[in-house]
Design a protein that fits this description.
six-stranded antiparallel beta sheet, mainly beta, Jelly Rolls, 1 helix, elongated, Immunoglobulin-like, about 475 residues
């Protein structure tokens, strides 16, 4: 009787445990998950799983290509990034609990719509880009540190001399389109010898539009690692307007002619650096090469006259520069063939405003300084420096109408000689100033014989009414001649 009763209680306990286990089993139902692509990065997705009775989830972002790789979550969204390619992936979620219920799984497809950013330069001989050593010397060389970080055969070597604003420029044959939000980051592989902070700045310049709302924009970052590293300039989120438009409303992004890079921006950073694999934006519109000299119009100082690459697309200027603005000159002014110039001044050929006295020619060049900048000027460069040992006199005819509002600045014309190869050509310049009178043609003579021994000057700057002056000036020049003074 004792054994029978003991057996009875044992069987009852087993049946009770089994019954309780059956009651505690929770079936997993209603498994589902949402897939959300990152608005700023099409390669990044979030997966948020939900189910009744699930305690944990295993999320396989690529159940075909990586069938054993998953991310666990208890119900929070999990994130992953895909390779840089357009592709369709199978995402699988497995729901689990610890109460004996069977696992439940669900798969969905996700398509990555990825448009690779354009290659601006990779130095392997396939770049459709003009490389300009604006003030930093840049040349294509063999990769000095080929590694997993950058295994390219060739890279760009940049040598900086220590000036605060040295730069090099890429001017591609098609505009850099920065309108697509997915491709508004410019990336560059950058090499430096030591682990130290170096300020880098990328600037997008020049747009094929006359809309004043489109301004040059820039992004500043800091590189800190030794060796190769990839730096990113996020123009979508981190851009600012470039000088002198810092206080203006932030410019929208569009199509740009050039991207400019500064190494050691605003600091005296000297050294040898390497750059490579520069990408960003997407292909825009083709930039014409009107004169067919292989220098596209966006960087061709003389787009209508076939010239030399080393002379910014202009023909080599003779030793005796002159211009009568009747089509007989050999001066290539720093503009789109007498169009809008840098420095907030224009120089445009027009009819002679007063065909009298010493100047009865049909045409003259109208100089317009709108008063927007205190350094307004026009200029021209020559391929080789001036020989000032004999040709050190400049004569120019000048006509200045009486301004509607009297000027406070002296009525004067200043000519300056500068070294165009310098990163700061205003340092070391020499100048001569002559006064003028209103409403009559007069010949002004500028004597640079005091600098006859100089051999570095290759630019002439023409500036009315001096610097630190925001008064708008309208003037005319004609018969500009540089020579021996005969």
């Amino acid at each position: 009787m004792y054994l029978t009763k003991k057996l009875f209680y044992s069987l009852f306990a087993i049946l009770f445990i089994v019954a309780c286990s059956k009651d505690d089993d929770v079936e997993i139902t209603g498994l589902d998950f949402t897939i959300t692509a990152n608005a700023d990065d099409a390669l990044q997705v979030d997966v948020l799983p939900t189910a009744n009775g699930a305690a944990t989830y295993e999320v396989y972002f690529d159940a075909v290509g990586a069938p054993t790789s998953f991310v666990s979550t208890t119900g929070d969204a999990v994130t992953s990034s895909y390779p840089e390619a357009a592709a369709t992936y199978t995402i699988k979620v497995i729901a689990k609990n610890t109460n004996g219920a069977l696992d439940v799984e669900l798969t969905k497809s996700h398509t990555v719509d990825y448009i690779a950013p354009r290659s601006i330069a990779n130095f392997e001989g396939s770049d459709n880009v003009t490389l300009i050593a604006a003030s930093s010397e840049i040349t294509a060389v063999a990769n000095p540190d080929a590694s997993a970080a950058n295994s390219s055969s060739n890279v760009g070597q940049v040598v900086t001399t220590g000036d605060a604003y040295e730069a090099f420029i890429f001017a591609p044959n098609t505009t850099i389109n920065m309108t697509e939000s997915a491709n508004q980051v410019v990336k560059m592989d950058f090499w430096q010898e030591n682990a130290e902070d170096v300020i880098l700045l990328a600037k997008l310049e020049g747009q094929p539009t006359t809309d004043s709302a489109f301004l040059d924009v820039e992004v500043e970052v800091t590189a800190s690692e030794a060796g190769w590293q990839t730096v990113s300039f996020d123009f979508g989120n981190n851009r600012r307007n470039s000088y002198p438009n810092g206080d203006a409303a932030l410019a929208d992004l569009g199509n740009y002619y050039k991207v400019v890079f500064f190494i050691g921006f605003g600091t005296n950073t000297a050294g040898t650096y390497y750059v490579d694999n520069i990408t960003g934006g997407s292909d825009g519109t083709a930039i014409p090469d009107t004169d067919g000299d292989t220098v596209v119009d966006s960087v061709d100082t003389c787009p209508n006259d076939a010239g030399e690459v080393d002379n910014d697309g202009c023909p080599a200027t003779s030793a005796l520069p002159s211009d009568d603005f009747e089509g007989n000159g050999n001066i290539d002014w720093n503009a789109n063939n007498l169009g809008t110039l840098s420095g907030d001044a224009n120089l445009i050929t027009e009819a002679n405003p007063s065909s009298t006295g010493i100047n009865t020619s049909a045409n003259a060049a109208k100089y317009e300084d709108y008063g927007a900048g205190q350094y307004a000027n026009v200029s021209f460069d020559v391929l080789t420096p001036f020989d000032l040992s004999s040709n050190n006199i400049i004569t120019v005819k000048v006509f200045v109408p009486t301004p509607s509002t009297a000027f406070t600045a002296p009525a004067q014309l200043e000519l300056k000689l500068q070294d165009k190869t310098s990163s700061e050509p205003w340092n070391g310049q020499v100048s001569v100033i002559q006064s003028y009178t209103y409403d009559t043609w007069q010949t002004l003579t500028f004597d640079f014989s005091a600098h006859a021994a100089a051999t570095n000057f290759s630019r002439v700057v023409v500036q009315f009414n001096g610097e630190a002056n925001n008064e708008a000036v309208t003037a005319y020049i004609d018969d500009f001649v540089m020579g021996s003074g005969n």
